[in-house]
Amino acid sequence: MQPSSRHFPENARRALADDRLRAMLDKSASGFRLRRRMAADRLPEFEALRDRGRDIKDHTLAHLDLYLERFEAQVRAAGGTVHWCADAAGARDAILAICRAAGAKTVTKGKSMIAEEIAINDHLEAHGLVPVETDLGEYIVQLRKEPPSHIIAPAFHVSKEQVAESFRAAHTALDPARPLDEPSALLAEARAMLRRRFHEADVGITGANLLIAETGQTVIVTNEGNGDLTQTLPPVHIVLASIEKVVPTPEDAATVLRLLARSATGQEFSAYTTFSAGPRRAADPDGPRAFHVVLLDNGRSALMDTEFREVLRCIRCGACMNHCPVYGAVGGHAYGWVYPGPLGAVLDPALIGLAEAKHLPNASTFCGRCEEVCPMRIPLPAMMRHWRRREAEQGLQPAVTRRGLALWAWFARRPALYHAAARLAARLLRRLARRSGTLAMLPGAGGWTRHRDLPAPEGRTFRELWAERRTGDGP
Amino acid sequence: MSGSRERILGGLRRRLGQPGGDDARRDAVERRLADHPRNPVPARALVPEPERVALFVAMATEAAATVERLPDTAAVADAVADLLASRNLPAAVRTAPDPLLAAVPWHTRPALTVSRGPAGDDDPVSVTGAFAGIAETGTLMLVSGPEHPTTLNFLPDTHIVVLPRRRIVATYEDAWDLLRRRSDAGGSWIPRTVNLVTGPSRTGDIEQTIQLGAHGPRSLHILLVEDADTASAAG
């Protein structure tokens, strides 16, 4: 996916002006938040599991090279192949080569954020293959020629009327007068259309929620069953996964899975959790003949010795975005790349560069809700602060911000002068505000006063009030 | 490709490795994999057998599965035939060649067509055995193999699963333990596919409204059999 994160301010303004989008965001996010709360409250061990999940991932990350080696050995023992890919181009090449060797024309896909990260659909299309998204949400956004706007609910931003429009435009062989008002009619139509595609496909590509070192298993979690049809029916199954997905054992996977569905959709457990090891065996009546795991790094291993290492604990549940006031206001597309919300604000600068993604760590109120709900206890706000510091160090802030901060710093290092200037400013603003106590406009603060009034100071500075209070209350 | 492998693993080793050598890290990994220790599990599942079964039934039902309790495997033929009739479904089932189902007296319901093997799109109803039931979330563990085609779990609209009561365990970890104790012909306990199934297929992708029957079965019916030959259920 081509990033457009540098346009976050314009993207956000456009999203804020879109009433239909904002109504959809409100509706979708509030449902997720409520269901997560109920699921977490129902499990007394939920907080203990979060601690344990964090510890499992920390342990695995500290030994990631060794666990990956074991995972690879186990996949090979089961008859599968592991393809190591340092970057997106490497992963695209590996997948295309597998598809070509299989003589593939149609490729079905389960939902995978890594697939978005490497933009595999465009690559396959450019080489004459037809990729078909099978997750209903992904299918909808594919028809709309959009990227997903949420990592677990790709069509988070789309209303059912818009889905009906897309289906009428795409499924032209069907009766144009058919009723598509009800979600059930939309689902039935998608199911029938995609059923054919599952059988036609030559290759099935799925992501992986987890990889298990001990067993060489790849794990997918779905509610629809699309991932299972994608990986069971075609002759070739490709698993596309990033290196940090590995955990040591099925027991560790169980702990992570207990957290995943509850944090994501508020379910006790998703409908389908599937563990796959290698291709079909000699006596098996069905299943893929070939099994490939494409392992992607794409900048992750470089985070190991930085202050961003802990973001690699992320299990992609989406809880941080469901609870983020900024995401809730602007939606996923405004972020301009694969991972939106607080996770994106930390991960996107690491993967596509701070110059492109510098706005994202700034798109936060620091309310801290993302960290409160993160099942892996990732300190997302602290990491956004680290990115802001790097942004300043690299001189990536606009000149006016840099000069403003430099000016403030100059005063701040001269307390007497600072105090005098603050006193003067407080009295001046008080005078300007007159009786209303607020300022409707102020030169140099248009960014604030364009949308709301600026409350004027009381006329005295904090230090003056504090000093008065101390002498008043003191012994 | 091997260049990338070395680049990735080498980069990780450089950043993670210890100055004195990696023996300690290697030992930690070997120990973890050999011991595969359990993490905390939900206390709600750690209850005596009758409550465990009741928890399984309650959680499966909450996930929109239907559960019917039967005295023995012999009752499965009638239960299946009656279910199809009550739902106006064609009297035909595709079944797994599972030893657990070998004792089902299908001949007592001659109107029912029974075929065996993997599923196709023309099979509206499948009947399979389950490897285990997991009480904590009402989840079935289904394991692939010659006697358990995976397509039976996903292609038919209605999936009927025969689960012996004695194979209901408390937690996911208990189900993995059962599996670890099993050894297939190749000597590995790891099946090609393990499906954990909790209720029928569903989606929330249209305005986050839950609808059943997205791509997999619209209906999951569990026949909980009191007295079945549990040895053969291991598959």
Q: How can the largest sheet of chain B be summarized?
A: 6 strands, parallel
Number of helices of chain A: 22
Strand content of chain A: 5-15%
- Write down the overall mean pLDDT of chain B: 93
CATH 2nd-level architecture of the largest domain in chain B: 3-Layer(aba) Sandwich
What's the level 1 CATH class of the largest domain in chain B? Alpha Beta
Can you give a write-up of this model?
The complex is a heterodimer of chains A (475) and B (235). Chain A has helices at residues 8-16, 19-42, 46-62, 64-77, 88-101, 113-117, 120-126, 136-143, 160-170, 183-200, 226-232, 250-264, 319-322, 325-330, 341-352, 354-357, 369-373, 380-393, 399-412, 415-433, 446-449, 462-473; strands spanning 81-85, 106-109, 130-133, 203-206, 210-212, 217-222, 236-242, 246-247, 272-276, 290-296, 438-439, 454-455. With 475 residues, chain A is an alpha/beta fold. Chain A has 3 domains: 43-301, NagB/RpiA/CoA transferase-like (Rossmann fold, 3-Layer(aba) Sandwich), CATH 3.40.50; 305-393, Fumarate Reductase Iron-sulfur Protein, Chain B, domain 2, CATH 1.10.1060; 418-473, no CATH class. A 6-stranded parallel beta sheet of chain A has the order 1-10-7-4-2-3, sandwiched between helices. Chain A is globular and about 90 Å long. The longest helix of chain B has 15 residues, at 2-16. In chain B, strands 1-12-7-4-2-3 form a 6-stranded parallel beta sheet, sandwiched between helices. Chain B has a 4-stranded mixed beta sheet with strand order 8-5-6-9. In chain B, strands 10-11 form a two-stranded antiparallel ribbon. At the A-B interface, helix 2, helix 3, helix 4, strand 1 and helix 8 of A face helix 1, helix 2, helix 6, strand 9 and strand 10 of B. Strand 9 (272-276) of chain A pairs antiparallel with strand 9 (193-197) of chain B.
